[in-house]
Structure formats: structure tokens, C-alpha cells
Amino acid sequence: MKKVMLLIAIVLFIGCKEEKSKKTETVQEHEMPAAAKETKKKKKVLSPHTETMAMVGDAHIHIDYSSPGVRERIIFGGLLPNNKVWQAGAHKATWIETNKDLTIQGKLLKAGKYGFFVIPSTEEWTLILNTNWDQHGKDDYDEKEDVMRFSVQPIILEDTIEHLEYKITKTAMNEGEISMAWEKVKVSFAFRVN
Question: What pLDDT, in 10s, does the model give residues 23-35?
């Protein structure tokens, strides 16, 4: 009988130690993710994904892009060299979508979704609409897939625009303007809804 009681006492003692050990492990598991979440919260997105959209006449215009910051850098003629194709945003190529045909500088742009690229320079920018809208940066850019190219004059701004910004402005019943501004440069173009 004494042996049975001793055996029960040993089993209970070992069981209690294992239970206590499991509780300690569980507490540690819950503490680790909380600390990891706190670290993640502190990380700031440098080029947040954003979009802008507007109705002009019966056309729905939508622009999707990632918005890099200046962060004390020289952008045009520095980070982005003149006379080289740029995806007009960060990460994935910027795209523009319209559900109606548009006329831009006398050229017809059929309803659809297009990659938006630019070639900056000091005197004149080339703006490009390309059929390949779903690509990373300009990695797969191919001039043969351009549906439209046109030139605009850059406007030099007094104040710095810290984050790349697109705007769609309705200027008349069936007319509008799309503008892109970053650092101290702004480019824009007018369009008419067909």
C-alpha cells in the first residue's frame, strides 16, 4: 500500500511539473508576436500604394500608382535621369483606365486600361500610354506596345511636392485634365470624352 501511495505521489509531482512547464511556454508564445507586431507598426511605407478617380461627363477615369517621396533627394535629372523611360510611380507601373474613348491632343485613346510611362527632360516630357499595364516598374516595357505618345511642357513649381501625386480635374462637361506632380515639377494633359 505504501508503494502504491508513493507511486501516485511521484506521478502527481511529475504531472504538476509538466503542467507548469506548459503554462510557461504558452505565456512566452503570446509575448513574442506582440513584440513583433510593435516592430512592424514602426516601419513606415516609403512609397504607399494609392489611387485617384473621377467622373468627367459619363467617363470614369481611374489612376493606380505607388507614391514615392522626395526624401531630400534630387529626383528629375538625379534619381531619375533625363531622356530615360520611367514608370511614373514606384514599384509596379502606374496605370490609367477609362471606360469611354478619350481624345488626347487630337489622338483617339480607346476605352481600356493602359500602363502610363514618361520620359522626363528639362525642356519637354514625352508621355506614353502602353498596352502592358500589369508589369513591375519598366522591366517589361516595350515601345512596340505603345498606343499613344505625346509631348508636354513641364511646369517648375515653387514649393516641393514631397510625394508623387496624380489629379484628375473636370474642366468642362466632357473635358478634363490629368496632372502628375512630384518634387518641383508638374506635367499635365487635357482630354475630351468622346
Answer: 444 333 434 445 4
Most confident of 17-26, 38-47, 124-133: 124-133
Q: For residue 173, give the C-alpha cell.
A: 462637361
Over the range 32-65, which residues count as b (16 or more CB within 10 Å of their CB) and which as e? Answer: eeeeeeeeeeeeeeeeeeeeeeeebeebebebbb
Half-sphere exposure for 172 (CA within 13 Å, toward CB): 6
Q: Which residues contact 182 (CB under 8 A, 6 or more apart)?
A: 68, 70, 75, 161, 163, 164, 165
